[in-house]
């Protein structure tokens, strides 16, 4: 909260006021001292006048020893303003006459030259003025007597008392006026503009335009004017930048949403196209393998070689499709580790033996060894093989001549699989690029060595899944060293990851169902005879972990099920639907369109929300 005591103006005023008070006090004291000195000098002048006026009269009276005349002269002198006591003594310190107020030191004089009745009061708070009465007869001693005039020490103060009061009053009046002027002008010139700046700063959030007026004449280019102008300029820029950022943020949110949708569509497309490609590949691979055997000797050698090419190409294409599917699952977080206890040395030997023929065909030297403290280890066999095969395949692919050295070893915490080749190598600046999805070092690499650049990206993610990583040491044209390492697991991990994978596939619990089943997957079929219609719906259904989605091309692919299943179709007249529904009592038909029919258990008219359809499936399955 704002307080004047804590303001800059008050601090400045306090410093100035203290110094002004100090200096004013010194000058006031000096002025009082000078007044006192002037008054004291005036008293001395007055005493000198009295001396000059009565000196000859006293001289005559003392010479004649006329005590009566002496006393009359003394009383005449005492009528002056400031003299309150007079003492006349001979040079032998014999008292001639004493009248009025005298100091106590006069008591020591006890000898009297003349008999005289004294009228004396003793007081120590006195000042003395002394002079001698001269002998005018020129006979004997030159001096006749000593005269002491006494006046009060308080006399100068009493004379300047009113002046002192007036001086002090004027000084304090000056201080008070100074305080008022300082307070007014500091508040107006400094405190108020600064307070306005502070308040404006508190409201400077970019949402509102903040402007500060100094209330100071523009022809005075003070620091506050400059500061306020700078603040107003800054406020304007912040407001403009905030407006730009707000608009940019809206655009970015829209782009993010579009990118996420594109990402989902991409995954859905890749998954679907991969499944579609795998379907014809299986019979191609199977039939070509059977024909290669040529049991009936129907084919010549050229045909057999062509069949081998077909079989090899289909196998490579199948591996590529599986890599794409794995990549989609990894990006979606659907890949989980499934640990089991195996003899790692046996697994390693099987792995190596599968590549010996290929390595021999390229005339490469193969060296391998195992350095395990214990061959029995807890690993995910499938993922271990997948990563190791990728590393070995790359070493073979990118090595024209020389050797490939493969080592399997362990330490206290990790297992290491190391592949060293004498291939083309990699520049240090390009090492990170090789782990990027669909990325090879350049287009010539893709043309020369084939591949889509997904193997190492998948391997890197799988290594992280196994609580490990892949490290690379390489030099251009000098070969590469790939080290795949992962954490050792104990027996408590066996089967746990698999159970977690199963449980995560289910996102909700269903009441009144078989409690022995830890996770229920609802079977949903889409009769995908209109890809444009079902594309977005397929993406939405694939996101639901409790739905097992399959796409069919015709109603003939739909079998009989004991559990409840759902069929999503485009609303149309189809006589075969009635036959299928009579055969499969557990079938529920969901139609999309505007054609009503008693065969449909639920009709969603266009336009409809995917979330509504998903919610219907969930709630209907719970009820039944």
TrEMBL record:
The keyword Transferase applies. Pfam families: HATPase_c, HisKA. Its EC number is 2.7.13.3. It is found in: Cell membrane. The chain crosses the membrane at residues 16-33, 164-186. GO terms for cellular component: plasma membrane. SMART domains: HATPase_c, HisKA. Keywords: ATP-binding, Cell membrane, Kinase, Membrane, Nucleotide-binding, Phosphoprotein, Transferase, Transmembrane, Transmembrane helix, Two-component regulatory system. It is an enzyme of class 2 (transferase). GO terms for molecular function: ATP binding; histidine phosphotransfer kinase activity; phosphorelay sensor kinase activity. Residues 272-490 form the Histidine kinase domain. It catalyses: ATP + protein L-histidine = ADP + protein N-phospho-L-histidine. This is histidine kinase. It comes from Malaciobacter mytili LMG 24559.
């Amino acid at each position: 909260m704002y307080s004047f005591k804590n303001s800059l103006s008050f601090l400045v005023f306090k410093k100035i006021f203290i110094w002004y008070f100090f200096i004013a006090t010194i000058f006031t004291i000096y002025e009082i001292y000078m007044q006192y000195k002037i008054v004291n000098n005036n008293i001395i002048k007055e005493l000198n006048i009295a001396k000059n006026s009565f000196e000859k009269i006293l001289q005559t009276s003392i010479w004649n020893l006329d005590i009566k005349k002496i006393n009359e002269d003394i009383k005449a002198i005492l009528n002056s303003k400031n003299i309150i006591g007079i003492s006349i003594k001979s040079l032998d310190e014999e008292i001639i006459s004493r009248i009025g107020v005298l100091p106590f030191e006069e008591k020591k004089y006890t000898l009297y030259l003349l008999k005289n009745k004294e009228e004396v009061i003793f007081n120590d708070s006195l000042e003395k003025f002394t002079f001698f009465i001269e002998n005018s007869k020129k006979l004997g001693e030159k001096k006749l007597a000593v005269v002491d005039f006494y006046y009060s020490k308080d006399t100068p103060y009493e004379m300047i008392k009113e002046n002192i009061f007036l001086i002090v009053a004027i000084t304090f009046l000056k201080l008070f006026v100074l305080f008022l002027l300082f307070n007014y002008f500091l508040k107006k010139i400094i405190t108020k503009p600064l307070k306005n700046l502070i308040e404006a700063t508190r409201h400077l959030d970019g949402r509102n335009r903040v402007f500060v007026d100094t209330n100071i004449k523009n022809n005075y280019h003070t620091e506050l004017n400059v500061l306020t102008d700078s603040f107003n300029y800054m406020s304007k820029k912040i407001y403009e930048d905030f407006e730009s950022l707000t608009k940019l943020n809206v655009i970015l949110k829209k782009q993010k949403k579009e990118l996420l949708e594109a990402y989902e569509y991409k995954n859905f497309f890749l998954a679907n196209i991969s499944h579609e490609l795998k379907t014809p590949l299986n019979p191609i691979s199977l039939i070509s393998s059977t024909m290669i055997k040529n049991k009936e000797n129907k084919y010549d050698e050229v045909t057999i070689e062509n069949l081998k090419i077909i079989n090899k190409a289909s196998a490579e294409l199948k591996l590529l499709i599986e890599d794409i599917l794995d990549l989609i699952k990894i990006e979606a977080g659907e890949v989980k580790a499934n640990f089991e206890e195996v003899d790692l040395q046996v697994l390693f030997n099987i792995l190596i033996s599968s590549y010996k023929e290929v390595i021999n065909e390229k005339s490469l030297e193969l060296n391998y060894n195992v350095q395990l403290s214990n061959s029995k280890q807890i690993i995910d066999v499938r993922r271990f093989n997948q990563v190791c095969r990728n590393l070995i395949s790359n070493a073979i692919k990118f090595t024209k001549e020389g050797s490939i050295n493969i080592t399997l070893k362990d330490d206290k915490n990790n297992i290491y699989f190391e592949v060293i080749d004498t291939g083309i190598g990699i520049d240090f600046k390009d090492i990170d690029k090789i782990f990027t999805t669909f990325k090879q070092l350049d287009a010539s690499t893709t043309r020369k060595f084939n591949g889509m650049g997904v193997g190492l990206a998948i391997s890197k993610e799988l290594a992280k899944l196994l609580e490990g990583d892949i490290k690379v040491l390489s030099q251009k044209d000098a070969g590469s060293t790939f080290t795949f390492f992962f954490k050792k697991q104990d027996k408590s991990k066996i089967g746990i990851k698999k159970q977690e994978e199963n449980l995560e596939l289910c996102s909700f619990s269903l009441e009144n169902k078989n409690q022995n089943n830890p996770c229920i997957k609802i079977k949903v079929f889409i009769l995908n005879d209109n890809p444009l219609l079902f594309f977005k719906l397929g993406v939405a259904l694939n996101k639901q972990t409790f739905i097992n989605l399959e796409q069919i091309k015709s109603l003939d692919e739909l079998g009989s099920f004991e559990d409840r299943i759902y069929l999503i179709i485009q609303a149309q007249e189809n006589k075969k639907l009635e036959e299928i529904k009579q055969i499969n009592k557990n079938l529920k038909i969901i139609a999309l369109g505007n054609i009503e029919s008693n065969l449909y258990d639920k009709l969603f008219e266009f336009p409809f929300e995917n979330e509504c359809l998903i919610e219907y499936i969930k709630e209907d399955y719970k009820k039944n």
